[in-house]
Specification:
alpha+beta; 46 residues; elongated
């Protein structure tokens, strides 16, 4: 079994709208380079 990764070791980005840091999520694994916003709410505000 592979070892689990700690949350503190996951990559982080800053949201383009609110400026808050957010961490990598598994659903963003294939598109992590394109992710700019932390949530749908921030994405809709742009």
């Amino acid at each position: 079994m592979p070892k689990a990764v700690k949350k503190s070791d996951l990559p982080q980005k800053t949201c383009a709208t609110c400026g808050r840091p957010f961490t990598w999520r598994k659903k963003w694994a294939k598109v992590w380079d394109k992710v700019k916003y932390c949530s749908d709410r921030c994405r809709s505000k742009r």
